[in-house]
Amino acid sequence: MKKNVLIIGAGGVAQVVAHKCAQNNDVLGDITIASRTLEKCEAIVASVREKNALKVDGKLEAHALDAMDVEATKALITKTGAQIVINVGSPFLNMSVMSACIETGAAYIDTAIHEDPMKICETPPWYANYEWKRREECEKAGVTAILGAGFDPGVVNAYAKLAYDEYFDKIESIDIVDINAGDHGRYFATNFDPEINFREFTGQVWTWQNNEWTSNKMFEVGKEWDLPVVGKRKAYLTGHDEVHSLSHILKVPTVRFWMGFGDHYINVFTVLKNLGLLSEQPVLTAEGQEVIPLKVVKAVLPDPGSLAPDYTGKTCIGDLVKGVKDGKEREVFIYNVADHKEAFEEVGSQGISYTAGVPAVAAAMLIATGEWDVKKMANVEELPAQPFLGLLNKIGLPTRIKDENGDRALEF
Amino acid sequence: MKKNVLIIGAGGVAQVVAHKCAQNNDVLGDITIASRTLEKCEAIVASVREKNALKVDGKLEAHALDAMDVEATKALITKTGAQIVINVGSPFLNMSVMSACIETGAAYIDTAIHEDPMKICETPPWYANYEWKRREECEKAGVTAILGAGFDPGVVNAYAKLAYDEYFDKIESIDIVDINAGDHGRYFATNFDPEINFREFTGQVWTWQNNEWTSNKMFEVGKEWDLPVVGKRKAYLTGHDEVHSLSHILKVPTVRFWMGFGDHYINVFTVLKNLGLLSEQPVLTAEGQEVIPLKVVKAVLPDPGSLAPDYTGKTCIGDLVKGVKDGKEREVFIYNVADHKEAFEEVGSQGISYTAGVPAVAAAMLIATGEWDVKKMANVEELPAQPFLGLLNKIGLPTRIKDENGDRALEF
């Protein structure tokens, strides 16, 4: 049994995490929100209070923290008595925050792989580049560290684990498809930090096919999918954290990630990329100022948080799993549909942030209750899927399945 | 009779001007090239020497100069004994350089209207915003100041003047069409300073139609033209310096400027503009750095000078003039065709720089010989066209005409 949560980050996902923690503070205890910019944390606290989101009376506080500073993070963990840290700040912070957790004994949760700010699209094996190097260290310290506990990675890993445990004797392929059929009404915007968003797509795309890493260019391999609720949408092979962990942990021969993109997004992205404006390497202006182009692109784009009030439409994210059960070939699509407007009304963020933030809170609750407090490092597919998906059914991200028996809600 | 030339600027156009001045230094005397960056000036001097371009023995020197500093510019004029200043630096410099000329008595030549760095696409009347305010001052000082003596504005103004004097009793409209049918082989590049290039197109487009200023959006009004050599090309209404001066000085009811653009240019431009990346107003990055997006775009784009070696194809720029002669409606197209590769072989710059730089040297030669040394401020259409066009026939930009009598070279 662990209690008291420290949320690191103050973006759209942190906002969702704070609201959901508040809604479940009978399980989670005190809540602290910390990021470099105190005002952003305070705005989240104000938003939680405005919605009266705290289920029971309890602490809800904002703190300024540079989470690259391990000692400062340790001090805040100690001061707040946090036994669970939900890291939804920049992916550049993962290793620092993990160090603070290992040294204080607090449980660690994140939603995306660690990134080095000076490297884009590192080559696989991704988790093995940073996180998995610290497995022994976590186990020795008895620290629970749950990696990639957002939606994708996160919930889609649990879908894969469920399929692996319940629906197949042998899985041949997992295709994770992420479609955002929402409309934010702007000329162009990214749904989360543009810097992180673009970094995903500027290098080579890596997928795991027939038991080996396969590389191609971004937007090179596209396919039209026909998914529940959102209908026909084009998605493209994209490198994504869970391709590595699922192929490695569940030993599935083919794991691919497909991200939906409209032609307009691809055009804007292509122009920016070809001009060199998505580069993380500094350039020198004629006036001698050293500038990182990607940071300027980020500065001119809408703040992803600002999109939420006008965002309409739905997301559909799921796993198409193919394989064999009882000697027969079969395929199932396990998925969730989320609604941007409903997300905004509940927690003040759009659907993309909602799908990323709610699972991290579910993971925290399972650590609090002990079910996922495994005292070692684990990816989501190494943990029992049913308590996680069952909890998500209750707190906002219900699971559905579509197979030869139809399209229906899954109960756990 | 005036002698000795000070060239201000060290870009592609300055390179052309230096070569052409050298080729005609029997008329022009000593040549000095000055800009903020001495190395750029020295590179131009080296290029002129490499081609053995100096017609007769004579001085050819590079100097560092911040031409915003009027006193420094005056001192350099005095030191070099320059009686003619060709300003082909940034359009932000015009007023400062003009001050230095007025105070020293040197003749002034430029190729584009003055611009305030903090304003984009100022509303008409353009020349009246800055240059024409100083007409009396020039006249009083007896200083020759020739405005807009590049190709467009410049040669196209002389074409209009020629049509006005020789081919029409009454002109109804002048449509200036500028088509670059060249290919630089890059994903995207501008043919001159990107900052200046984009500034032309980010605001409203102003044209003079039926004796009044008419405004529309950039790329809103397009038309396919079928021109000599370059064939069918689409061009769009664009605001341009000479629309103002020609309508005002020649009292023509309709003066329009059409700039040719390919769909790819328009797409890149539209993306950058809609994202706010062409803004001359600073933005703040997440790290707190103040940056002007347009300057970052400039920094990532190819240096226009670097395009020259690979540039192939031709430009066609001319005036379609409609009106009445001897009671009959007629129309003539007066134009020049230039070749990128030939320009590079002769002076080491591409065709766009060539067409802008050669006319400024022709203007300098006409000041040197006295024909254009009018001791006041003048736009090109206020000066006799024939000596100018006759000289251009000899030094690289021959004039052709297409009318009811066919398509032929014009001799003067």
TrEMBL record, chains A, B:
Domain (Saccharopine dehydrogenase-like C-terminal) ranges: 150-396
Gene3D superfamilies per record: Dihydrodipicolinate Reductase, domain 2, NAD(P)-binding Rossmann-like Domain
Pfam entry (one): Sacchrp_dh_C
Annotated Saccharopine dehydrogenase NADP binding domain residues: 5-146
InterPro entries named in the record: NAD(P)-bd_dom_sf, Sacchrp_dh-like_C, Sacchrp_dh_NADP-bd
Annotated PANTHER family: CARBOXYNORSPERMIDINE SYNTHASE (PTHR43796:SF2)
The protein, known as: Saccharopine dehydrogenase, NADP-dependent
Organism of derivation: Aquamicrobium aerolatum DSM 21857
